[in-house]
Specification:
Layout lengths: L2 H13 L13 H7 L2 E11 L3 E4 L12 E5 L4 E6 L2 E10 L5 E6 L4 E9 L3 E5 L3 E2 L7 H17 L17 E10 L1
Antiparallel strand pairs: 1-2, 1-3, 1-10, 3-4, 4-5, 5-6, 6-7, 7-8, 8-10, 9-10
Helix pairs in contact: 1-3
Amino acid sequence: MKINHYLILVTLSVATLFGCSKSKDDVKPETTSLLTRKWSFSEVSVKTNAKTYAIPPSDEASFFGEDNTITFNTNNTYSTVEDGKLIEAGTWKLSGDGKTLTLIDIDKTTTDMTVNTLSETAIELATRNVDVTKANHSDEELNIAFVAGMLLYVIDLDNGGTVDFSKEPEPKSYQVLLKGKAL
């Protein structure tokens, strides 16, 4: 399996490992209708306590573009496709206030994403912010830190990227940000 397939799979899978918050509020139909469509990610970045690093399209991080999509269906199912192949599927739920998107994959692993932006043409999602300086981490926190580390690996100067991490501040927290556009 190529590293680019691994990164998209890990990013979306980890996004499903972030915990579970439930709302008993009914979701407004117009909010749900904004989500139910096919999306492609146009920007992925890792935010640390000191800086935000954009992850550019590359052979190692090819989860960008119209060949790599996530589709939210009206029957509350979703599917992710990479290079025309289904790589993950499950169900989704939007909180009553429209601020939390919960993904449940076929293995019943749950991921909560904060919805920063949702319109007919744009979506922006964020993982939980993980404090990497604390001693004991939940599985969700470990997964977020792992995905963030893999994404930063792609842009590390030692791996053909453009960022010399030996000169960057030591991160104390990680958060993955995903921006997409409707197709």
